[in-house]
Amino acid sequence: MGEHPGSRPRLPISPVQQMMASSTGALFTSLFVTPLDVVKIRLQSQHAPFHRGKCFLYCNGLMDHVYVCQNGTGCSSWFKAQTHFSGTLDAFVKIVRHEGMASLWSGLPPTLVMAIPSTVIYFTSYDQFQDFLRGGLGVRSSVSPLLAGAVARLAAVTVISPLELIRTKMQSRRLPYGELSGCIRSAVNQDGLLSLWRGWGPTVLRDVPFSALYWFSYELVKSRLCEERRLTQTNFSISFTAGAASGAIAAVLTLPFDVVKTRRQIQLGEMDALGASVKTTSSTWHMMRSIWAELGYRGLFAGFLPRVIKVAPACAIMISTYEFGKAFFRERNQD
Q1: Count of alpha carbons within 13 Å of 187, Cβ hemisphere only?
Q2: Which of 80, 166, 196, 268 is deepest in the core (most CB within 10 A)?
Q3: Are residues 45 and 37 in contact, defined by beta-carbon separation less than 8 angstroms?
Q4: Which domains are present in the chain?
Q5: Which residues have C-beta within 8 Å of that of residue 93, sequence separation ≥ 6?
Q6: What is the spatial distance between Cα 293 and Cα 289, in angstroms, rounded to a whole number?
Q7: Residue range 249-258, pLDDT digits in tens
Q8: Which DSSP string do the residues of 252-274 spell out, in sequence order?
Q9: Which tops the pLDDT comparison, 199 or 112?
C-alpha cells in the first residue's frame, strides 16, 4: 500500500513500525469522529429520554462503545444539561458554549482503550497477510485484498470480542477496573466460557464482509488514481479519496448486518443492566427476517445516511494517516 500499483514488494518496515502507524491513525480518527457521535447522541436523547437499563452506542468509525444508563437522565452529568438543540450545527455551538470544548470528546477514553489495540491487530495483520498471500503463495493482486481483509478482521474481532463484552458488563454494573478478574469469573460461571464471545457471530457477519469489500475497493481505487496521475507511489490525497470511497461502498453493502448487530448489542446490554441472563438469542438470519417482515427493506437499511457520513471520513482519515505513517518509517529506514 504505497508501492507501484502493479506490484507489491515486501514492506521495508517492521511490524512494530506498522503498529505505531496504525495507533496514530486510530488516535486521529477517534479525535475527529467522536464529536460527531457525541452530537448525534445528544440530539437523539433530547427527543427520546433514556430510562434505567437503556443503552446507546458510541460508534466512532473504528468500533462500537456501549453505554448503559442506570438511573434515567440522572445517571450521568452528561444528561443534566437542559439545553435544546435545533440541529447539528446548533448542538456543536451550544455544547462548546455551555459545557466546554472537552464535552465533545465525552466517550473518547473508553473507546480508545479498545479501538487502539483492535486497530493495531487489524491493520498490521492485513499488511502481513497481504505480503504472505502475494509473496509466499503467489495469489493474484486482485484477490489478495479480499482474503487478507477478511482474515485480518476475523483475527481482530476474535481477540477483542471478549474484552469488549467484559468492558460492557463492567460499565453496566458500574464496576471499578480492580474487579476485572471477578467480573470475568462471574461471566464464565454464569454462562460458560463461550459466553465471552457472545455477539461474535453477528459482529463477524458485519465486519468481515465490510473489511473484504473495503480493502478490495481501496486497492482498486488507489491503483486507478495512481495510474491516472501517473504516480508510482500513493500520496495522502489519493489514500484519503480511496479510503472515503471504499468505506462508503462497504458501509452501504453491509448495512443490514450492522442493523442486526446494533439491535442485538443493545438488547444484551439492557438485559445485562437489569440483571437478566441471556441464555439464547435469535440468529442473525432470523432477526433479519423479522426486521424485513416488520419494516421491509427500509428497516434493514435504517441509518443509511448517518452510517455513510460517519464511516466514509473515518476510513479516509484512518487509511491516509496509516499510509503516511508507513511512508515516514520507510523513508527513515532508508536514510
Answers
A1: 23
A2: 268
A3: no
A4: 15-334 (1.50.40.10)
A5: none
A6: 6
A7: 998 888 887 7
A8: HHTHHHHHHHHHHHHHHHHHHHT
A9: 112
